[in-house]
Amino acid sequence: MRKLFLYAALLLLSQCSKCKDNDPSPEAQLPPATQTGANTFGCLVNGEPFTPAGRVGLDPNLYFEYDTTFNGGTFTLQAFRAADRRQQTIILRAIPLAGLGTYSFALPNSIAQIAYSDTRLPDPCDETYSESDFAYRQGSLTITRLDPVAGIVSGTFEVKVVALGGCDTIRLTNGRFDVRR
């Protein structure tokens, strides 16, 4: 009887260890940070993985634009996720984006800009799109590859924002993107 109990306990422990292996960490659910034009985007939003998914109308869930001729270089990247009756959107911008380097999100007069929306948050916290929507914004956008000829822009980002209106702090961490026209 004692051996049966011991075998049952060992079986239970081995099954629990398998559960850990099948439940990857949030960081492991993000795409790798590449510079090949893989058309990937990912970050953690307050510790939860965010990658583009789903569709809203005909719009793609990952879109970017880089114009070398407007305002010294204008970069816009938009990613959205539509799943489980929830839509989240992250928009990164940098004006002027002259080349490789790190650009600050810090207010005031930052080059890098961020917008975030989440339909599950209460109004007015569900959308923060403009400089005037933020009480605080800190972080950076780092461009690691900028190749206008190949149409590839790659980089990383981290940003913490506090919106006006008593909204919770939004932390976007472990951000990475690798997009191609």
UniProtKB/TrEMBL annotation:
Keywords carried by this UniProt record: Signal
Quick one: signal sequence residues?
1-19
Name listed for the protein in its UniProt record: DUF6252 family protein
Its source organism is: Hymenobacter canadensis
